[in-house]
From TrEMBL:
Gene3D superfamilies xref list: 2.170.150.70
The CENP-V/GFA domain, residue ranges: 4-112
Protein name: GFA family protein
Entry keyword annotation includes Iron: no
Top-rank taxon: Bacteria
Family named by the database record: Belongs to the Gfa family.
Protein source organism: Roseateles paludis
Keyword field: Metal-binding, Zinc
Pfam families attached to this UniProt entry: GFA
């Protein structure tokens, strides 16, 4: 399984994530559309934080089911954490934070989060 490295803009938050990037999801909900995130979902155990947990801040709203994680210094959102519909921990990786990834090669699916 390939390992991908990623970070926020300033580098205070660094992470590694294992898996094949087969697609991204563009959501039009209020927070995703403002952040411009392009998300890739993986089981949470495939994400390893390479910097201290204290380098992250957390934002949660509405149903408080998703923990939106962002850098406490530069504000970039590298990933989020939640439970899948089956109750399993998942991470939503912001593909725009993965190093050396050719985003043009990743198929993007649109998700109507605004309708939820």
């Amino acid at each position: 399984m390939p390992r991908h490295l990623g970070s926020c803009h300033c580098g205070q938050v660094r992470f590694a994530v294992d898996g094949d990037i087969d697609s991204g999801l563009a959501c039009n909900c209020s927070i995703c559309s403002r952040k411009g995130s392009l998300l890739w979902f993986v089981p949470r155990q495939q994400l390893s934080l390479l910097t201290p947990e204290s380098s992250l801040s957390t934002y949660s709203f509405n149903s408080h089911r998703i923990r939106h994680r962002f850098c406490a210094r530069c504000g970039i959102h590298p990933f989020g954490e939640a439970l899948s519909p089956k109750g399993e921990p998942v991470a939503a990786i912001n593909l725009r934070c993965i190093e050396d990834l050719d985003l043009a090669s990743v198929p993007v699916h649109q998700f109507d989060g605004k309708a939820l």
